[in-house]
Amino acid sequence: MSDNEHRFESVPAVREGLRSVDYLADEGIAGVVYLADRLQKPVLVEGPAGTGKTELAKSVARSTGARLIRLQCYEGLDESKALYEWNYKKQLLRIQAERNAAGWSEIEDDIFSEEFLLTRPLLEAIRADEPVVLLVDEVDRVEVETEALLLEVLSDYQVSVPELGTVSASQIPLVFLTSNNTRELSEALKRRCLYLHVDYPDLEREKEIVLTKVPGVSENLADQIARIVRSIRQLELKKAPSVSETLDWARTLLLLGIDSIDAEQAKETLHILLKYRTDITKAEKELSAG
Amino acid sequence: MLDLLAGFIQELRAAGLPVSLTENLDAMEAVGHIPIEDREAFKYALGATLVKNHAHWKTFETVFEVYFALRGAEFGIDADDDASGDGQVGERQEGMPQAGVGGGMEALTPEQLAEMLYRALANADEAMMRALARQAVTRFAGMEPGRPVGGTYYLYRTLRNLDLEGVLERLMQSARDEATGELTLLEERLERDEFESRIAELRQEIEAEIRRRLVADRGVEAMARTLRKPLPEDVDFMHATREEMGALRRAIQPLARKLAVRLARKRRHGRKGPLDFRSTVRHSLSYGGVPAEPKFRYPRPSKPEIIVVADISGSVAAFARFTLHFVYAISSQFSKVRAFVFIDGIDEVTRFFEATEDINEAVHRVNTEADVIWVDGHSDYGHAFTEFWNRWGREVTPKTSVILLGDARNNYHASQGWVVGELRRRARHVFWLNPEPRSYWDTGDSIVSEYGIHCDGVFECRNLRQLERFVEHIA
Fold first, then answer.
1. Which end of chain B, N or C, is less surrounded by CB atoms within 10 Å?
2. Residue of A231, A232, A265, A288 to mutate, testing the B interface (most B Cβ within 10 Å of its Cβ)
3. Which of residues 97-126 of A touch B (CB under 8 A)?
């Protein structure tokens, strides 16, 4: 284990690193990432959809030059998809090929060796020699019982395979778990993680995000975009516009060659920000009411 | 340092946040890794290790402010004396310019103060705003030590004197003057939003200032106790303030979404069905004919049909509104939802919900357009139920669950409890939800048990949490 090797020097260093790969972190985000590295603890990232939770993990991987291993969670995810699986088909072939020759005990030793092991993301992250970032995406989609699978990996950075013994990590991966909060996660999982809530960015940060992510956009336009989006988020909507939708909108306006938005143009392009008809009508009414 | 943290964590626990021992240890370790003089970083380190639920974040912030503000003076984190302090500008720490300004503010006339406030807001000068907030509290709040009034009272007094509405208008006017040419409606709205957010910031400064002084006056423990506000899902429907109503309305949507996900999941994974022979054989082919992976059929239980009959007279209107809102928010989990509202007459309001996607608007139309008055507009459960039975009774089928909402305060009219009995004979279930605390039932003109004996269950339903539990139970 590399106790004395840290990925980041200080909190500002985290911010700098993330900025160099076009991810603008605020104080809180950078602070938690830094702590995660120092305390060697996973980070649980929660927040509304489209605020850059997954992007954070990707950016950290890119800025540290680590490999990103991603486990996309879904209902019905189980051990054999998350941790490891024996390659039954290959094992069957092996047994059939050896039917007459060797004794059973030899075959048994043989078919439970690494050759027949299919590694899945969690085991792969543990076994990797080079630095990795493990992203467990949308962890709230798995059932409560399946969450328990993650616990051993997250707290001790090891995986127990009954036939092989325990596999411990040669380096501590930086782990990010994201959640859209469709259900409460178990206490046991939360306790093992640092908690980070990523909310919609404030005006200044959103403007900066637009400026970095959409090349060619003018300062003035970015400012206007950020302000209009903020106004829209204050309405009571079914789904408030996310950062990625803001960026899409900025790109659209750029393509249309608009440099300064008036109410008419805003209304015509609202469907990029908002995805429900009722929301769009409401926003249109608000924008023209002044 | 350790004592300080331990005390802080005790305070968090007292405020209702679940902080475990391991989290406690994590927090201790975390603060060792960050520069201690950086207050923001300190706060985030504690937040990340101690608070694992975003709904708790506000409480955490308040406790943090309260706890570390008072000790600030002793530990030098925050040089925070009284605003009418000595004015020794030179000796103040850096980054605290407002304290320096605060010294010279005593002499200002109210007009000058208003002018400074206006200018600070126009330029978004944060340090100045903080200083002004402090000055405003000193001047207008009229705080006296030991006076048993809440912070909101002081806040109200301060804000009344500042006339923020007027300031906003002035800011808007100057924005209009400065603009080259006419402001378009859109620009005007954006300007207004900008200024409003600055004023909201000012309000927060003032609130924080008042809180700080109350802490100094009453001590951390007493203050922390008054700050323990219930979470949105624990707020009582019948006694919610307007602000809490807003919070409730916003809480409904995510809550309904969570519940819908949970119900859908339960329906799919509730129990395994019988063996799917065909699929099992198909999958055994890749194992050389060995049925290694048995496959099962999933059962598809039918979704219930819901009829909501709600009293919307004044006393329980808020409750009926929330229940309708909630039921419709998860209507995808039911095969059909019909809604009826009554006071002494009864009317079907399903059409309002079907006409629009916006539940808020539908609920609003229910309140304004439904035809629910028969004689005098005082609740008459008996008449409303009889009417319901005569007009729609035949449409209640064994698939239907009927939910009756109300406090059963019948103004001493005839109860007509037999209707509920008849309904139960036809329907799958009949439930009654009562927004009153159980101890009030059957007191005065409440006759809930006269209906209750005919129901499959009578539930107390005073807050979102209880409502959620009930809906999960029937779906």
1. N
2. A231
3. none
Interface list for B 123-142 with A (CB within 8 A): none
The rounded Cα B186 to chain-centroid distance in angstroms is 31
Nearest Cα of chain A lies from the Cα of B301 at a distance, in angstroms, of 19
**What would the mean pLDDT of B41-62 be, rounded to a whole number?**
84
Is the confidence at residue A176, as pLDDT, over 90? yes
Per-residue pLDDT of B240-286, as tens digits, reads 777 777 777 777 777 777 777 777 776 666 556 788 888 888 888 88
Average the pLDDT over A36-47 and give the result.
90
Q: Which residues contact B439 (CB under 8 A, 6 or more apart)?
A: none
Q: What is the mean pLDDT of residues B167-187?
A: 73
B209-233 pLDDT, tens per residue? 777 777 777 766 666 666 666 666 6
CA distance A89 to chain B (A): 6
- Restricting to A residues 202-241, those with a Cβ less than 8 Å away from any Cβ of B are 203, 224, 227-228, 230-231, 234, 236, 238
Candidates A31, A262, A290; nearest CB to B45: A31
In the predicted model, what is the mean pLDDT of chain A? 85
CA distances from B151 to A171, B144, B158, B203, B214 (A): 52, 12, 11, 13, 8
Question: What residues pair up with A246 in beta bridges, in sequence order?
Answer: none
Amino acid identity for residue A71 in this structure: L
Q: Are A254 and A217 in contact (CB under 8 A)?
A: yes
- Chain B: residue whose CA lies nearest to A88: B287
B247-270+302-474 in CATH: which number? 3.40.50.410
Average pLDDT for A222-248: 86
Q: What is the DSSP letter of B141?
A: I
Contact list in B for residue A143 (CB cut-off 8 A) is 265, 269
Q: Is B204 an 8 Å CB contact of chain A?
A: no
Question: Rounded to whole angstroms, how far apart are CA atoms B194 and B188?
Answer: 10
Torsion of CA A82, A84, A85, A87, to 10 degrees: 130
Which ipTM did the prediction report?
0.80
Distance from CA of A27 to the nearest CA of B (A): 8
Most confident of A92-106, A222-236, B68-82: A222-236
Asked whether the predicted pLDDT for residue B98 surpasses 50, the reply is no
Q: Using the beta-carbon criterion (under 8 Å), do A231 and B193 form an inter-chain contact?
A: yes
Q: Is B48 on the interface with A (CB under 8 A)?
A: yes
The 3-state secondary structure of chain A reads CCCCCCCCCCHHHHHHHHHHCCCCCCHHHHHHHHHHHHHCCCEEEECCCCCCHHHHHHHHHHHHCCEEEEEECCCCCCHHHHCEEECHHHHHHHHHHCCCCCCHHHHHHHHCCHHHEEECHHHHHHHCCCCEEEEEECHHHCCHHHHHHHHHHHHHCEEEECCCEEEECCCCCEEEEEECCCCCCCHHHHHHCEEEECCCCCHHHHHHHHHHHCCCCCHHHHHHHHHHHHHHHHCCCCCCCCHHHHHHHHHHHHHCCCCCCCHHHHHHCHHHHCCCHHHHHHHHHHHHHC
pLDDT in tens, B363-373: 777 777 777 77
In contact, B220 and B66? CB cutoff 8 Å: yes
pTM for this prediction: 0.72
* Percent of the residues in chain B that have a pLDDT greater than 70, as a whole number: 82
**Residue B301: pLDDT band with limits 50, 70, 90:** low
Pair of tokens at residue B129: 């705003």
Res A59: pLDDT: 92
Residue B280 is predicted with a pLDDT of: 87
How is chain B split into domains, by residue range?
Answer: 2-75, 89-229, 247-270+302-474, 275-300
Q: How far apart are the C-alpha atoms of B171 and B183, rounded to whole Å?
A: 14
Query: Considering only alpha carbons, which residue of chain B is nearest residue A239?
Result: B253
